[in-house]
Amino acid sequence: ESYDMGGHDTYMHKEIAEQADAVDRVLRGRIDERFATVHLGGLNLDAREARSMRRVKILGCGSAYHAGMIGAQMIEELARVPADAEPASEFRYRNAVVDPDTLYIAVSQSGETYDTLAAVQELKRKGARVLGVVNVVGSAIARETDGGVYVHAGPEVCVVSTKCFTNTAVAFALLALHLGRIRDLSVADGKRIIEGLRRLPGQIDEIMRAEDDIKKLAQDYAEAKSMMFVGRVRGYPVAREASLKLKEVSYIHAEAYPASELKHGPLALIEPAVPTVAILPDDELLDKNRATLEEIKARSGKILAVAHQEQEKADHTILVPRNEVELDPVLMGIPLQLLAYHTALALGRDIDKPRNLAKSVTVE
Ligand code: G6P
What we know:
By secondary structure, this protein is an alpha/beta fold. Helix content is 45%, strand content 16%. It is globular and about 55 Å long. It binds 6-O-phosphono-alpha-D-glucopyranose. 6-O-phosphono-alpha-D-glucopyranose is lined by residues 61-64, 108-110, 113, 116, 159-161, 357-361. 6-O-phosphono-alpha-D-glucopyranose (G6P) binds at residues 61-64, 108-110, 113, 116, 159-161, 357-361. It catalyses: D-fructose 6-phosphate + L-glutamine = D-glucosamine 6-phosphate + L-glutamate.
């Protein structure tokens, strides 16, 4: 990929549009049909280590942190190891206990974010095993970690992350599958995930074909005073990232909550000028999520659902193609990147260089 805009008005739009190709690239050459797993050449973690670790801790900032939240869920689901993600800066300032049985993973597009790098250095100093999930080859974090997975999203120029976020989530799916197949994941489940991964690029193209509809919705949502994003479990990191994306490029205030937490406070904010974007995959939580839509409707809140099927209670539904449930977060974020983009466009924002933000924060 070159740095020219290739006919797009902004890098953000170009990078959103490149995602099917980018996902194709992160998968390329890594799938092992025979053992229903993936090869990750630079991982530097042998099977014995993969079996003996007792926890996974993922560290990153901004969108990388949100991709890490998705990664932690995938690792728990597919590899059955307790895993969680934390902002790298919080981790390093709270003098966290560094546990020898924990695998640490630093996530970064640039590989140069100071807080993430400093967390890696502190971990290494204390003897921890640290891997990287990084986009820029040979960057500081890639060099300082013991091994890892390259994200292969290609150069990302727009300050806000889109294709790298998506590819990082896919890179985590690969890592989770790899760890799962060493631990307890069956061949049948390995095959199921591989088939799901292969469907992603075509499904991303399908989502992109709905861009005109999303653009129309954005005209409407651009008038919001503030927006609420909600999801449960797999939908929650998607809500977090979508809320961040909207704030960054449109400057509309947005909050993300687990749908179950709405009743513990944020419901007080719901009114017609504060619409909610609800992430509702067809998973085991669909009924619970539908009940949330009813709670919002009862307070006259407007609802935009991102779902696998039309949602009666919602004012609008953006339909996303079905995949394996573990991979839902990869696809469900993409229409919301388009929503953020078109909302910012409708408001005349400086999309590629939002005020007060930098692509890579290399200072403390
Ligand atoms: C900055 C950017 C964010 C990005 C974060 C982490 O704050 O504005 O878009 O997610 O840094 O960057 P990294 O390069 O470490 O992924």
